[in-house]
Design goal:
By secondary structure, this protein is of the alpha+beta class. It is built from six helices and eight strands. It has helices spanning 30-38, 55-63, 113-127, 142-150, 183-190, 193-197, and strands at residues 11-15, 18-24, 69-76, 79-87, 97-104, 132-138, 154-164, 170-179. The structure holds coenzyme A.
Length: 198
């Protein structure tokens, strides 16, 4: 998947007085990404199909950049503090659907970075010509589910006992989705129009 994003990076934002830079992820981010993933609680990784704490899974993510995956990183004070992925399988029967993944460093949560990253992914979805976005997370991630619902995602399914952590405990996985065509309307409603048009 060629990245046809019309949105230009890097971008810069102040979040609660702290400067944050947003740019497209590249393979050179491997060391910073490894440090970032290693510092996350394992439970935060259960929403991704494959275990990101495995170096080969991380390597496959980086190798897929500009093909099936478009990813952003957020950098503050020289540290990677958040990242995203919009995953599209162009050879599947759902080339119009992007799977969204967002991760924020625990120390940075609750400052609005997650919302900014999700909205950046909306812009990427529009420029990639996607029609639908899906996101999945364990049902106990209620703050995350609330953030996605606030931004227009709607629950579509619950997959019972679908993921298993390293201790063998299973969790239900919630699948939420959003029609990209609804973004224009929602953007006007919640002040995202400027973000979508930049
Ligand atoms: C979901 C996630 C990306 C949100 O990131 P974030 O930067 O905390 O997002 P925001 O600051 O924009 O919103 C956070 C909301 O979570 C809650 N929150 C507040 N402080 C929090 C904290 N310290 N930790 C977690 N959630 C918090 C609040 O409900 C907040 O909403 P509010 O601003 O209305 O109070 C982040 O929690 C995360 O990385 N989770 C683990 C991975 C995951 O589940 N990703 C979603 C599936 S792709």
């Amino acid at each position: 998947m060629k990245n046809t994003s019309k949105r230009h990076y890097p971008r810069h934002l102040e979040l609660q007085g702290c400067p944050v830079d947003f740019r497209l992820m590249t393979e050179a981010d491997a060391p910073a990404l490894t440090t970032f993933i290693d510092a996350l609680p394992v439970h935060d990784l259960l929403f991704v199909r494959r275990n990101l704490s495995h170096p080969k899974v991380l390597a496959a993510w980086l190798a897929a950049l500009d093909k099936q995956v478009t990813s952003l990183v957020a950098v503050a004070e020289g540290q990677l503090v958040g990242c995203t992925a919009v995953v599209v399988d162009a050879r599947s029967w759902s080339p119009h659907v992007g799977e969204l993944r967002v991760l924020v460093a625990p120390a940075w949560r609750g400052r609005g970075l997650g919302r900014v990253l999700i909205k950046e992914c909306f812009n990427l979805a529009v420029s990639l010509g996607l029609e639908k976005l899906t996101v999945q997370m364990t049902v106990d991630q209620s703050a995350a589910i609330q953030v996605f619902e606030e931004l227009g995602f709607r629950p579509e399914a619950v997959l019972r006992n679908h993921v298993k952590d390293t201790d063998g405990r299973t969790y239900d996985l919630a699948l939420l989705s959003l029609q990209v065509s609804e973004l224009g309307t929602r953007a006007a409603e919640d002040g995202m129009s400027s973000a979508l048009n930049q």
